[in-house]
Amino acid sequence: MTAAPTSGFSAFALEPLSELQPGDDLAGTITGVLSRTGTELRDGGIVVVASKAVSVTEKRYVDLADASPGLEVLALSAKTGKPAEIVQLILDSSTEHYLATEKGPIIARHTLGYQLTSAGIDRAGAEGTWLLPEDPDASARSLRDALNTYSGAVVGVVIAASDGRADRRGATIISIGAAGVAPLRVTEHGGKRQEETFTDLIAAVAGIILGQRGVAPRSLSCAASRTTSATRAWPRCSTTGREARHHVARESRRTE
Q: How far apart are CA 34 and CA 155, in angstroms?
């Protein structure tokens, strides 16, 4: 699917969002904020949700006491200074890993296919962690369907997670799941054709609002973006985030 570059958009936080608890209805929480604040979702809007919010509501909590570090893990823990229980969960959640520097951080290839710092594991206090959603694309579809039903608008959903790069300091945000918006956008200019990781660009916009270590509930919050009236709609197709990771782009008339 070829699309013209977007000429403008707006982005805003959906807040105040109450602190989420395991098993909470995420769509219901978001729509509650919409109702209380008189905010409307519009056709073509995209709701970006932090992966931790999805993990909390999907009960992806793991108690560190349940981890059983092996000899390889103990050695890696000593080298990086990261608790052995956390290292064990990183290896359990990944297919391969390496150290960005001699002392870390650990960059791991998650079983979902993503290459993420610490396999995307998020600490939950001193005694536990939050794993990534089991199927981020399915989570995005479920949330998208619920929001569309509530609002009557046709919106997309992007699930975003924090990530770092081995070649630079700091962290950014990338997409790990999407529904209702194509993860890849193709632009053409001057005879040149370029695929863009579109949902990563959308996640980065939301990251400016969500931050990395915001005060709750902002750290578990979500943001929404809209194209302006002068722009074309976001490109939509049935390609999933997992397919985009393997560089497979398909055109489809069906909106996911």
A: 14
